[in-house]
Amino acid sequence: MTTIAFIGLGNMGNPMAANLVKAGHQVQGFDLVPENLRIAGENGVTVMANAAAAVREADVIITMLPAGKHVLAVYNDIVAAADRAALFIDSSTIDVDSARKAHAIADAAGMQSLDAPVSGGVGGAEAGTLTFMCGGSAEAFKRAEAYLSVMGKKVVHCGDAGNGQAAKICNNMILGISMIGVGEAFALAEKLGLSHQALFDVASTSSGQCWSLTTYCPVPGPVPSSPANNGYKPGFAAALMLKDLRLAQEAAQGAGASTPLGAEAAQLYSLFNAQGNGDTDFSGIINFLRGREG
Ligand code: NAD
């Protein structure tokens, strides 16, 4: 049994912490929202009064917070209270710069750290089937693996500090762009009198195939488990897709990378969100694309 501090018990953090409890670990949790603490308590997490109290005597410290500024604030707040031998793992999706700053805070205090953002959403957090993309030293990765594999089914070491976040935003930039491409193809097919199923049958076995088509098809019918069959209930909310596309653009600008389709995808998801679709599954962008035609 390991004592694990878990800070940030929201939609993702609470089910992840619950899986660590189920695996027999002592989990000390903190969140700013009392309702989230109540749920954590019901799941067997020991609820602490603040973040500094949660990390005391913890061997591992996991954060699952909204953005880079929250992670840096929490790291600065807890670093003095944490045990020198503790391992920091940040699973939030944040900008690469902040991730590297968070590593530097831990490093300056002599502690090991890992950025370990996830894909798989709330369903994956509940089922313990997340994918973790990790950045940090090989030693930190080796220490973290046993805990991450309780919460996920795939744990990948992507390289040095910040590379987990880099992998996450690059992957999600592909996803945002490909979903728009698939949505446009179905919208065009409709105008040309080609059925959804016929386009799916051809493209899913041809050079147009991709995850956005074959696993997450944005029209109802061809893939019964996709959110299109369920009123575009997330799944992966459009607001989170926009967040990740913006992080990718920020990183591209900082690194001097040219990502014109990533920029266009961020712009389209921004318009889609502005029309009140932030809580809609990101594949619902096909409806927005249809609306832009003509
Ligand atoms: P959420 O808003 O439900 O949870 C974040 C929690 O952090 C909230 O409960 C909030 O009260 C807490 N918090 C903020 N500042 C705090 C502080 N100083 N101390 C303690 N707690 C604090 O968000 P979520 O959906 O759980 O997502 C968490 C992270 O995971 C985000 O970075 C998100 O981008 C990423 N992510 C989410 C999903 C998803 O499907 N929801 C999928 C992949 C990655």
UniProtKB/TrEMBL annotation:
Reactions this protein catalyses: 3-hydroxy-2-methylpropanoate + NAD(+) = 2-methyl-3-oxopropanoate + NADH + H(+)
Pfam family, one: NAD_binding_2
Catalytic-site annotation from UniProt: 168
All copies of domain 3-hydroxyisobutyrate dehydrogenase-like NAD-binding, residue ranges: 162-288
Pathway: Amino-acid degradation; L-valine degradation
EC class of the enzyme, as a word: oxidoreductase
Gene Ontology BP terms: L-valine catabolic process
Family: Belongs to the HIBADH-related family.
Protein name: 3-hydroxyisobutyrate dehydrogenase
Protein species of origin: Zhengella mangrovi
Lineage, highest ranks first: Bacteria, Pseudomonadati, Pseudomonadota, Alphaproteobacteria, Hyphomicrobiales
Gene: mmsB
